[in-house]
From TrEMBL:
Residues 2-70 form the HTH gntR-type domain. Keywords: DNA-binding, Transcription, Transcription regulation. Coiled coil: none annotated. This is Histidine utilization repressor. GO terms for molecular function: DNA binding; DNA-binding transcription factor activity. It comes from Sphingobium chlorophenolicum. The lineage of its organism: Bacteria, Pseudomonadati, Pseudomonadota, Alphaproteobacteria, Sphingomonadales. PROSITE patterns: HTH_GNTR.
Length: 231
């Protein structure tokens, strides 16, 4: 059963994500949360403190607790929703879940996700545009930060789409490299061996919490990366 302070936290996060509570909005007082959830002040304080530490809320002395203004790191790339990206091109989208495993983090997982320890969800899937693989995705989700992800099977909804819709983030880091597809990767992408691919790696976190690591491989002849810059 989900701890009560997690439920309060998710309630607040969902209101922020939906746009119901905009930056600068004053959220209910601790007493109001205590009444709404029939819980102790300690439980409410634990939920609010974690959101303040993650940067989603800010506490102002004698004024209350407010939704923070976004403090995202500026990047040339936004965090894409591959499903939306494909459909915006007028193409049909399909998800093929290849692997889903809940497990303790291995040493390699810890290095990739940049966490000291913990349990995670490891996912491998293919994103299709029409009848061709558009991208091959490997993803790790930190279950300490996103425990509810353990209950999602991701056979229908892409993990990236689900995370964007349900989990607020405050910072992201991208790394882009070019690789040649090895035989196993080429087979999954339905492309010739040594096909040139764009590898996009992304780390996303909320305050000090690491949320997810993703590595997406795109066949070079099926994908174009575009970024817009403003002076």
């Amino acid at each position: 059963m989900t701890p009560l302070h997690h439920r309060i936290r998710r309630d607040i996060e969902s209101r922020i994500m939906s746009g119901e509570w905009r930056p600068g909005h004053r959220i209910p007082t601790e007493a109001e949360w205590m009444a709404a959830y029939a819980c102790s002040r300690m439980t409410v304080n634990k939920a609010l403190r974690s959101l303040v530490q993650s940067g989603l809320l800010e506490s102002r002395k004698r004024a209350g607790t407010f939704v923070s203004a976004p403090r995202f790191h500026r990047a040339a790339l936004e965090i894409p929703d591959i499903r939306a990206e494909v459909m915006e091109q007028g193409l049909s989208y399909r998800l093929d879940l290849l692997h889903r495993e809940r497990r303790p983090a291995t040493e390699e997982d810890k290095a990739l996700l940049r966490i000291p320890d913990g349990e995670l969800l490891a996912i491998q899937c293919r994103h299709f545009a029409e009848d061709l693989p558009y991208a091959l995705e490997h993803r790790l989700i930190n279950l300490s930060a996103v425990p509810e992800a353990a209950d999602v099977d991701f056979s229908a909804e892409p993990p990236g789409s689900w995370l964007l819709a349900h989990v607020p983030w405050t910072e992201a880091e991208h790394r882009i490299t070019a690789i040649n597809a090895d035989p196993a990767t080429a087979k999954k992408l339905e492309a010739p061996e040594n096909t040139a691919c764009l590898a996009l790696e992304r780390w996303t976190w909320r305050g000090q919490e690491r949320i997810t690591y993703a590595r997406q491989l795109y066949p070079g002849d099926r994908y174009a990366l575009t970024a817009h810059f403003h002076a």
